[in-house]
Specification:
Strand order of the largest sheet: 1-2-3-5-4
Structural class: alpha+beta
Order of helices and strands: HEEEHHEE
Helix content: 25-40%
Distance between the termini: 33 Å
Strand content: 15-25%
Largest sheet: 5 strands, antiparallel
Radius of gyration: 14 Å
Shape: globular
Oligomer: single chain
Number of helices: 3
């Protein structure tokens, strides 16, 4: 069921403390941890504690938690001191967009230049 922990979800296991992660921030509704395959000097994933497959599902069911994810992404950027130079927040939605773990997560990327369009 949406919002409930999923036994086969890597990120639900991180939230539960069953899988280790380098956690940089936690709130009542979110967990932020360093990506194991960083694509920039700052590459942190911000996830809701509740399980939703993607950003659209989270926004539809729990808009306040979706806002918490974005607020925590800004706090991560400030904590890593990439907020003034610029950073990117990315939500991949669906396999065709590069989503590999189907528990919504925001990638916070910073510390280097980024091209536009991304891809």
């Amino acid at each position: 069921m949406a919002g409930e922990p999923q036994a086969d979800c890597l990120f639900c296991k991180i939230v539960a403390g069953d899988v280790p992660a380098t956690v940089v921030r936690e709130s009542a509704t979110t967990v932020a941890f360093r990506d194991i395959n960083p694509q920039a000097p700052t590459h942190v994933l911000v996830i809701p504690r509740a399980h939703y497959a993607d950003a659209a599902a989270l926004a539809a069911a729990e808009p306040d938690i979706a806002a918490d994810v974005l607020r925590e992404a800004a706090e991560v950027a400030a904590g890593d001191k990439v907020d003034e130079g610029g950073y990117r927040i990315v939500f991949n939605t669906g396999g065709g967009a590069g989503q590999t773990v189907f528990h919504v997560h925001a990638h916070v990327l910073g510390g280097r230049g980024f091209n536009w369009p991304p891809g």
